[in-house]
Amino acid sequence: MADAAVAQPAAKALSCPNCGGTVTLRAAGYSVTVACEYCASILDVSQPEVRLVTRYNEKASRLAIPLGTRGTLDGTEWEVVGWMARDDSGYPWEEFLLFNPYHGYRWLIEQRGGWSFGEQLTRTPEGSWGGLKVDGESYKPFFADGTARVTDVVGEFYWRVKRGDTVRTDDWVRPGAMLSREADGKEVNWSRSRWVPAATIAAAFGVAAGGKPWPPLPHQPSPALPFVKGGIVIAILAFLALLVGASITGGGRSLWNGSIAIAADGRDQQATVGPIELTRPYQRVRVSADVPALSNGWVDLDYTLVDRKNQASYTASKAAERYTGRDSDGDWSEGDQTAGADFAALPAGTYDLVIDYKGNNWVDPNKSSGNFWDPGAGEQTPDWRRDAVQPQVNISVRSRGGAGGGVFVLMLILIVLPLGAGFLIHARFEGARRGESDFASGGDDG
């Protein structure tokens, strides 16, 4: 014959000896005490005769989750059978005792709108005071030498509880979970609670979702941490993609090289060079100029690329300038003998490059150049156009692949900015959370 099914505890109705109210005992056979929900008197139900342990004249406050409410967490249906309020030196919280005949007891802990789902451990965590480990997860100390006091109680419990009961507490945390140690003169109990979003509790038990606790609760995970972790991965992948794209589209080729002469009298000049063949649908082109003889002067350079087929033109301007001198601080110099001008996106075709240019010389006003009667009497001002042997501008035209350095930097900024904002939000959250710890100045809990 098959074994008979194990009998499950049934609800049982009792009369409160103090107020006469009907008290429903939901975990009959398991509960030791029950608090009357009408007058909050504590009743001993461990014996057939219900005995009044403590009488309270005031009614229990209205609960966020009424006794008898059922809700499903982690696929298991739980019933709220007890509630008590506790306090540790002005640090209050509420605990709802949950019961399931197949899975036993669990706890819902509520504090400042934040919720945790707790269970009693049947083993002592491994490690020492400075760090504990359970199921391979490490916890670090957060609160120490606390005293938790029961300030109110309603419902039934599997141990004798009353207002004023106290236990010594210590807590260790990791993001998303907390280990708690409670000890009195008789025994030591360990429990583990994990953070549960308020929306999950609201969906399970039909209560208001509540606000976001601030400062954060000790084990509350940073809401920005998933974004930061994902952002780091995305940023790395995006950076690698940029590098690969730059390597594929980069490596421009030379299109034309040559030189044009600079007139010693500094007149306006024009030169046309080419042909310049552009083969890709669109490409970037840089025209570079180098004036080796340039000294204390500048060269204005205006470029026009003209498509031979349709006479479409594209312009850019640049100036090469170089100055040197000596003052009370010693020799000085500024500028560069080279200059580069970029054309962003030129269509394919055959082009001529028209260069309008002019060499200019800088005259130091502090040096004498003679007088009205004898202009040559003063110090002769150097002129790089006159003194150099065949002064010229060396022109180089190259196609350039990729998006260019400026665009590359902009793309990096767009990647890094959101990630940086996430880091700041995470740092602010963690700073506020750790600031609540008894070990706030002693280190980092990671």
From TrEMBL:
Q: Which residues cross the membrane?
A: 227-248, 407-429
What are the DUF4178 domain coordinates in residue numbering?
67-197
**Which UniProt keywords are listed?**
Membrane, Transmembrane, Transmembrane helix
Note the superkingdom of the native organism.
Bacteria
Transmembrane helix found in the keyword field: yes
Record bears the keyword Transmembrane helix: yes
What protein am I looking at? DUF4178 domain-containing protein
